[in-house]
Amino acid sequence: MKNVTDSFVLLGYWPAAGSFGLNTDIFATNPINLSVVLGVLIVFGKGVLSDLLDNRKQRILSTIRNSEELREGTIEQLEKARIHLGKVETEADEYRVNGYSEIEQAKLTLINSTSKNLEQLETAKNQTIQFEQQRAINQVRQRVFQQALQAALGTLNSCLNSELHLRTISANIGMLRAMKDKKTD
Q1: DSSP at 14
Q2: What is the pTM of this model?
Q3: φ, ψ for residue 19 (rounded to 5)?
Q4: Cys-Cys link to 24, which of 6, 12, 54, 132 (CB 3.0-4.6 A)?
């Protein structure tokens, strides 16, 4: 690497052979080289650079137009969505109000039917109690009657002898015949 650097340094010490030479003074040659390069770039690169900038400008403008169109479409969709939301909220309020009234109506219907059922149950309970009381009274009457009948039979059997018994039967038969004769007349 040192040999390559030395060869450039030695070029600066060669005597100029005619009118062509290599100037290695950076400060003296740099503005000239830069002006030549810039001149070549401006002349030949102007069209390319202009085309690149025009293409870039067109892409930016088309992107802006697309963005504006998308923005307008999005704004329209947003307005439609807001209108739809308002309709849905109105319908939800109607359903809510109707639902509450239906719930109240169902509640009243349930209360009324429950009240009627309770009244019917109360009536059935009272009827059952009355029936059971009447049945108990009838059972007590039957027992009292049976006991009284058994006591009367026991008294009659102990008091009656066979002769008195035959007379009572004959008297009863006579009464039955008299009743039968009255019916046939």
Answers
A1: S
A2: 0.36
A3: -100, -5
A4: 12
Q: In the block, which residue shows the tokens 């059997």?
A: 157
CA–CA dist 8, 137 (Å, integer):
147
Residue 137 corresponds to which tokens in the numbers above? 């009274």
> Residues 168, 160: contact at Cβ < 8 Å?
yes
State pLDDT tens for residues 32-74.
788 888 888 788 878 887 888 899 999 999 999 999 999 999 9
Residue 12 contacts by C-beta under 8 Å, 6 or more apart in sequence? 22, 24, 25
Question: Are the C-beta atoms of residues 23 and 29 closer than 8 Å to each other?
Answer: yes
Q: How is residue 19 annotated by DSSP?
A: T
- CA triple 29-31-35, angle to 5 deg: 115
Neighbour count for residue 13 (Cβ, 10 Å)? 7
Phi/psi for 160 (5° steps) reads -85, 135
